[in-house]
Amino acid sequence: MYYQFGKVRPHLTTRSVHPENQETPIHFISFIEPVADSLFYRRSHFPYPILTPESFTLKISGSVDHALVFNYSDLLKLPSKSKRVLIECSGNKRAFFKEKVFGEQWENGAMSEGILEGVPLKTFLEYTGIKAGVSEVVFRGRDAGVKNSQYIRFERSLPISRALHPEVMIAYEYNGKPISNKHGFPFRLIVPGWYGMASVKWLNEIFLIKDKFTGPFQTDDYVYYFQNGTSEQVTTNHVNSIIQQPQDKQLVKSGTHEIFGIAWTGSGVVSKVEISFDKGDSWEQAKLKKTPKEHQTVSWSYPMEFKSATEYHISVRATDREGKTQPAEAIWNKKGYGYNAIMQITVKAE
Amino acid sequence: MYYQFGKVRPHLTTRSVHPENQETPIHFISFIEPVADSLFYRRSHFPYPILTPESFTLKISGSVDHALVFNYSDLLKLPSKSKRVLIECSGNKRAFFKEKVFGEQWENGAMSEGILEGVPLKTFLEYTGIKAGVSEVVFRGRDAGVKNSQYIRFERSLPISRALHPEVMIAYEYNGKPISNKHGFPFRLIVPGWYGMASVKWLNEIFLIKDKFTGPFQTDDYVYYFQNGTSEQVTTNHVNSIIQQPQDKQLVKSGTHEIFGIAWTGSGVVSKVEISFDKGDSWEQAKLKKTPKEHQTVSWSYPMEFKSATEYHISVRATDREGKTQPAEAIWNKKGYGYNAIMQITVKAE
Known about the structure:
- Two copies of one chain form a homodimer.
- In chain A, a hairpin with a 4-residue loop joins strand 1 (13-16) and strand 2 (21-23).
- Chain A is built from four helices and 24 strands.
- Chain A is elongated and about 70 Å long.
- Chain A has helices at 72-77, 121-128, 160-163, 216-219, and strands spanning 13-16, 21-23, 42-43, 57-62, 68-71, 81-88, 111-120, 136-147, 150-159, 169-174, 177-178, 188-190, 203-209, 223-225, 231-233, 240-245, 251-252, 255-264, 270-276, 284-285, 287-288, 298-306, 311-320, 343-349.
- Chain A has a five-stranded mixed sheet with strand order 5-4-13-8-9. In chain A, strands 6, 7, 10, 11 and 12 form a five-stranded antiparallel sheet that branches. In chain A, strands 17-24-23-19-20 form a five-stranded mixed sheet, with no helix packed on it.
- By secondary structure, the first copy, chain A, is mostly beta strands.
- At the A-B interface, strand 1 of A face strand 1 of B.
């Protein structure tokens, strides 16, 4: 017997109302098809910004040879690229830290994947030129509000080396339609392989700088504060996986079921997904449903016979081509980023 | 500063796809207005039954003087009653048992409240008569499937004394509209004050019996199996409450916020709701927003000033007129029913 997803209408699960933070229930993170824009997880820092004529312009200035303003129609005429990309919130799975941390209690669904179309950032910087000594590129969104008693806009930076990566783009379409209001219309920076905070929504201004950017979303939030007192900026998505079926504590009917889920990594591609029924003493390889691609999820499955009146402990771990593998326990950090411990569930056959 | 529920579209959170089990996110259990049918929590034991001509009949037989079949139009002509009623799944809050149990991992939203209209069961039994020695009334729904290797229909019983309670009704309308397909169309038994499994959906047949009913949903499921080896049938809703705002682990802005939530009980009415900021050493009374009514939730609130960079531990407990109060720890039972421990959250002001 195999489970089928039926006619249940997919939806997002609300984590907070203002600002709107919503994740995708584990049942609907299937990724066989790109997820509809309406089901793309929502993680906002401030209220949704209001659209003004200025929203349709993108200004690039700072340490450039020629400061330039691109408008929406200019931008759409530039040579574009289209790529299926996973975007995952760095707080995804935060709820699973054993020692709880403050912040949205995301479970597994603060991630989505779809086809983004846009213009490589590199293309714009070829127009503006880059002055010698530039170290970082700062991206400013139109979303704004009060943080630490100051009225600010959402800003993040990338090192110049990463900013010039050919996959970093200024996207304007999602699944063939303009990026929606809730996800950054008209422009969203896309940084494949980095956690979602890097992919600045409602992108409006870009500055090239020669020193270090120290905005609060760069040096206060989105920093791993480890237990030993050290800290490190949040960047690349950790190697990770989830079991989508069965669910933890599910009572399943006896017989053969397909255990399935997805795996992903920010660095390289997933090389294998393994499953264990003895709490990690021995591991067997799950089947990958397609050849893993960079910055995309890969579906995996494992057929399993469940015997009547028996309990099963199921663990799954992914490993990537760089040899990184999911740990038994996630590295705790004060703000709860980058959780990627092996997912473990127990299931009982009736 | 007070929180407002904004334009975020309410929805249900899926716990399982087949059968469809969905709960209401804590943000949308407000109960100021009766909850829309589409947002009423869904807890099914089997696939949704298919509507047939027989669905529109209600047969009452067994130890009666006159077995009778009522059809839909007959039933609608009988004198009806309308009442706002809370229905709560006995597995509500199951996910919070410290020692986890199998089954749907419901959090706080496996409960809903709305206005039900129907005919008291008593009225039907006056038509059929009740033979001497009747001990129980069995209710059979049209939902069916395989359980313990047998194809069965959903069946539950009530002791005759409870069946004759004037509030027990056969409902056909919810919030002024026919009860929907997903919630029992055309007839649902409503047993106010008992957990939801008693309110049999897609009600089709009623039997009066002189012995003890032993269907699996009566004597296997919906039984408290305690740690000391004793067991007890699940009946009356336990006294209970939730904090809806703020949420656990929320980072709130400093300033005055309204802490609010709801409380309810299956026996009598709620007499008080108390709040503690010192893990239960001292308690203060929250304000009830209206006079509590039987088998309905009551909203409560407490204004609180949150000081910057401070953590708050908040506990809330309800007490009912029978003197029952929420315990610090829920009574663990193997199948995870009736969880009603005091809800405790921690919040940090920025």
